[in-house]
Design goal:
Strand content: 15-25%
GO molecular function: sequence-specific DNA binding
Distance between the termini: 16 Å
InterPro entries: ArsR-like_HTH, AsnC-type_HTH_dom, Dimeric_a/b-barrel, Tscrpt_reg_AsnC-like, Tscrpt_reg_AsnC/Lrp_C, Tscrpt_reg_HTH_AsnC-type_CS, WH-like_DNA-bd_sf, WH_DNA-bd_sf
CATH topology of the largest domain: Alpha-Beta Plaits
Keywords: DNA-binding, Transcription, Transcription regulation
Number of strands: 4
Protein name: ArsR family transcriptional regulator
GO cellular component, one term: cytosol
Number of helices: 5
Helix content: 25-40%
Length: 151
């Protein structure tokens, strides 16, 4: 699907606040409610717009520790990769996981309540899959966090 300037404006509004009314979005993008609704529906059908979720405040809920976990492995076969993927998918602490080019094979963003909770996560992970090296970096301060794309 090809998107135009109006679609981009709608997407910017949805990234800012997906809970705002169609009337508000339409007014902000200079359109009316029905065409905006139709555009949103088409972008959902095309997969441009995915699940709409609520962002929670991790600190307010007691998840005060954010670790970036660097993983090196000597295993690269399909069986290991499936086991690793399953281990990550089974752990809600893992907010993000990326396979990397370079010296580090994977980076994980892990959100837990404290260092003890991270250790429990770590122990469970290495008990399930073999890794060569794990380095955990504790985020001291979140400087910027966004899910918005620069449209």
């Amino acid at each position: 699907m090809k998107i135009d300037d109006t679609d981009r404006k709608i997407l910017v509004e949805l990234q800012t606040d997906a809970a705002q009314s169609l009337d508000d979005i339409a007014r902000k993008v200079g359109s009316s409610k029905t065409p905006v609704w139709n555009r949103i529906r088409k972008m959902k059908e095309a997969g441009i717009i995915g699940a709409q979720v609520v962002q929670l405040d991790a600190d307010a809920l007691g998840f005060e520790a954010c670790f970036f976990v660097l993983i090196r492995t000597s295993e690269h076969d399909a069986t290991w990769q499936r086991a690793f993927l399953k281990a990550l998918q089974d752990r809600p602490e893992v907010q993000e996981a990326h396979r990397l080019a370079g010296d580090i094979d994977y980076i994980l963003k892990v959100r837990v309540k404290n260092a003890r909770a991270y250790d429990a996560f770590y122990q469970a992970l290495i008990a399930e899959v073999k890794v060569h090296n794990v380095t955990a970096l504790l985020s001291m301060e979140e400087i910027k966090s966004t899910t918005a794309l620069p449209l």
